[in-house]
């Protein structure tokens, strides 16, 4: 899996020259904490406590986001080469791996949909799966079938999170299309592919696209040149890829049930290794 073809760059997000972009696609680039200090006073107002805790949490998160943005700006400008630190601070800005995972609502939903589809292919066969999803594959090209699948697994976005998860699916399907193209360009070739790479690929792309959505402007505005921006994006992709590989090492598609609880836990594992606080 090559990172550059997998994700696309920040400038075009992988959308230009992508054979799998559906006509309706729009590139919309648009906590679980507890205060350790508790007081047991009869005169204490619980509502005031909750409001105070919420304000403190918001203030902490504002500081963390400021740190993440400033650190990414330093890396983009060349004042620092610590890509790991920049990505770690980004996860911390969400409140850590657990909170970042809870915020990956669209990614988790699409991972479940994609996982169930891929698992069905490995267990039932391609044509049986396409029939089950009511995808008419007769006299249709591979591109047309994959486009239809995108619209089923991740419909047109209504929110920014929807747009990020859908974009990640499109780029993942581009990887799948390229793999099929190396075979015969017939959709049946998917049965001969290693389907175990599809879910890790999607999660990698989603996490990267969300980071770029959140901090990409810092890379663009602080890099000395377009080439420097592209180089930094590549380094971030490769760092995320190396970490996700750790999570999925030795695992197969059949190992997962693709329930919300299980995939939330999987995202938590991914964000934990990416945050890499050890």
Folded structure, characterized:
α2 (46-77) runs antiparallel to α3 and α10 (226-248) packs across α11. Mean pLDDT is 84; it is low at 1-17 and 21-42. The protein is an all-alpha fold and 278 residues long. It folds into 2 domains: 3-29 and 104-275, no CATH class; 46-93. It is globular, with a radius of gyration of 21 Å. Helix content is 65%, strand content 0%.
Which structural category fits the helices and strands? mainly alpha
Low-confidence stretches: 1-17, 21-42
Number of domains: 2
Helicity level: 55-70%
**Sheet of most strands:** none
User: What is the quaternary state of this protein?
Assistant: single chain
**H/E order of the elements?**
HHHHHHHHHHH
How far is it from the N-terminal to the C-terminal residue, by CA? 27 Å
Shape: globular
Q: How confident overall, as mean pLDDT? A: 84
Q: What's the number of helices?
A: 11
Instruction: Tell me the number of strands.
Output: 0
Keywords:
disordered N terminus, 2 domains, 278 residues, 65% helix, mainly alpha
What order do the helices and strands come in, and which of them pair?
Blueprint: H1 3-7, H2 46-77, H3 83-93, H4 97-102, H5 105-124, H6 126-132, H7 142-153, H8 160-183, H9 198-222, H10 226-248, H11 260-275
In short:
This protein has eleven helices and no strands. By secondary structure, it is mainly α.
